Amino acid sequence: GDSVTQMEGPVTLSEEAFLTINCTYTATGYPSLFWYVQYPGEGLQLLLKATKADDKGSNKGFEATYRKETTSFHLEKGSVQVSDSAVYFCALRPNDYKLSFGAGTTVTVRA
Amino acid sequence: DARVTQTPRHKVTEMGQEVTMRCQPILGHNTVFWYRQTMMQGLELLAYFRNRAPLDDSGMPKDRFSAEMPDATLATLKIQPSEPRDSAVYFCASGSGQPSTDTQYFGPGTRLTVL
Questions:
Q1: Around Cβ A48, how many Cβ atoms within 10 Å?
Q2: Pseudo-torsion of CA A67, A6, B106, B7, nearest 10°?
Q3: Pairing of strands B110-114, B88-95
């Protein structure tokens, strides 16, 4: 079945460091891909998405490119801030409503 | 700023008790989702409603869980009787359009602890 595998955490970085969280997927067809972020004590928020191959999603300095050839959707940010500390979830959605989430990666940014 | 609201935010109960969790979707949204988040299983879809009709509850243990939408502004998830393994964070999410394309907006969750 459809599934997502993402980099295990936790990840600890210093402010202004470069962040990459790897995400690969297994799916039949052409799913949409998402990154969600969960701040402490809150629900998940959509960070960015891409609906077809080679699309790049971007938001708040984060980017991810839908790579069909490598079945990947890695999340990157060039210079992280303390406020980026959160849990990040990669997810895919085939042609229906079901979102399949990865296990989540906890990111801590130190000042 | 429209948001999905959930009550209660925290619930501690004893095994065997009934638990009811409530969700108010964003006004105008016609799809509602219930998810459960645990350390072991991650995020799992429990149920999906469209225009108040349950379209998929295959992720939900049928013997003790039930989900309903009495009206467009309220979705409920009940567990009866509750068990310690039900301890988790339960999220409600709502969406406004075609579920294959729209964004799901999540509530803050209900953290359930069953002793």
A1: 19
A2: 170
A3: antiparallel
* Structure tokens, B70: 């009495």
Can you give A19-61 as a three-state secondary structure string? EEECEEEECCCCCEEEEEEECCCCCEEEEEEECCCCCEEEECC
Angstroms from A43 CA to nearest CA on chain B: 4
Per-residue pLDDT of A31-55, as tens digits, reads 999 999 999 888 899 999 999 899 9
Segment A83-86 long-range contacts (CB within 8 Å, at least 24 positions apart): A83/A109, A84/A19, A84/A109, A85/A109, A86/A37, A86/A38, A86/A39, A86/A40
For residue B33, what are its two tokens? 């989702």
Q: Which residues in chain A show pLDDT less than 70?
A: none
**Least CB–CB distance from A97: residue in B91, B99, B106:** B99
Record the tokens describing residue B29, joined without a space: 């949204």
Cα distances from A102 to residues A36, A54, A93, B35, in angstroms, run 10, 21, 12, 14
* Six token digits for residue B49: 């409603």
Contact B101 A32 (CB under 8 A): yes
- Annotate A16-27 with b (16+ C-beta within 10 A) or e (fewer): eeebebbbbbeb
Which of B5, B43, B90, B102 is the best residue to mutate to test the A interface, defined by the most A CB atoms within 10 Å of its own CB?
B43
Q: What is the pLDDT of residues B32-75, one digit of tens each?
A: 999 999 988 889 999 999 999 998 888 898 899 999 999 999 99
